[in-house]
UniProtKB/TrEMBL annotation:
Pfam families xref list: Acetyltransf_1
Keyword field contains Transferase: yes
N-acetyltransferase domain span: 2-130
GO molecular function, one term: acyltransferase activity, transferring groups other than amino-acyl groups
Keywords, sorted A to Z: Transferase
Domain of life: Bacteria
Protein name: Acetyltransferase, N-acetylglutamate synthase
Length: 130
């Protein structure tokens, strides 16, 4: 069973820190890993309302994914950040639910568009350029 919870309590903070560490371990860039470690220390900033949001995805009550949104320089636009699904939960619809939750939350916060930036080695996260 898939469920999504907003980052709001000690339990989700613990779950999110573990997911972010798992995510950081998959990155090829030491600089990117260091940035994630710093974000763990700064949680929940910069992903807090009214400029952002942070969600933890659960599969059978176990933390298995995350996604965040944060403001950009354009007040009508936000950026999707830290979308990640644990390997054992991939292909089961959790990533889709996280994305749909992030999009709905962005609309609720008044954003009209959303951007997604990826690292060059994240080919699965990028759309083909035509």
């Amino acid at each position: 069973m898939i469920s999504i919870r907003s980052f709001s309590d000690r339990e989700s903070a613990f779950d999110l820190a573990g997911l972010m560490q798992e995510y950081a371990s998959t990155l090829d860039s030491a600089r990117a890993r260091e940035a994630i470690v710093q974000q763990i220390a700064d949680l929940p900033q910069p992903f807090v309302p009214p400029e952002g949001a942070l969600f933890v995805g659960y599969l059978n009550r176990l933390p298995a994914g995350m996604v965040a949104i944060k403001s950009t320089a354009d007040p009508a636009s936000c950026e999707m950040k830290r979308l990640s699904v644990s390997p054992q939960a991939r292909g089961l619809g959790l990533g889709r639910e996280l994305v749909l939750t992030a999009i709905a939350s962005a609309g609720d916060l008044g954003y009209r568009s959303m951007k997604l930036a990826t690292f060059p080695d994240m080919s699965a996260a990028r759309l083909p350029v035509s």
